[in-house]
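Working notes for the structural subgroup meeting. M.R. asked for a predicted model of this chain before we commit to crystallization trials. I am recording the input and output together here so anyone reviewing the notebook later can reproduce the run.

Input as submitted:
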Amino acid sequence: MKEYSISTTESFEFGWRKFKEKGILFTGLVAIMAVLSSIQQTPQFSHSNTFIGISEIYFPVITVIGMLMSTYFSLGIWKIMIMHSRGEEIDLSNLFTISFRNFIHYILAYLLSAIATVLGLVFFIVPGIHIALRLMFLAAFIVDKDQIFDEALKSSWKLTQGSTVKLFVWCVLATAIVIIGFLSLIVGVFVALPMVSLALAFIYLKLTDQEVA
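Returned structure, recorded in token form:
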């Protein structure tokens, strides 16, 4: 595996170019995730007249279902971004191609990474940020390489060795792009989120010495 030096400019230019190829599809993906996000927040309105007659016990259930669906679709989006970045044909059906095995292993990997990150944040913040950056590609390894949770954690940790500073800078710039998207009457986020996701998929593919298109 040859060494690749992360370039924020190159990745975002790639993300913008690939977004334009399938803009309608990516806009739809953002809309789907927005709907799922709103479903998870329905408990905030549990005392509204709209929900009179519905037992409050259902709201936690709805929230959990929404979280599980968001997690599943986020994996599907990762897969779509990687496939599109490689030049493969994609459509909305790819969103539903994540296996139950991949889903379960991602949940396990995410829980372990979240615990490690929180513990790291407790100890002077910096270790937590470092851990989060080192494990940011675990989902990619699960959906792209069909790895189990512990393999994905190890692979992401190994892949990002020596790249944490550049990844941190990339994340800061990516966050700024998304914020600008929200400030652009929210409409801009339908472009910003897919573009950033494609840029991240590009970095993953380059670091793993795979072809991009």
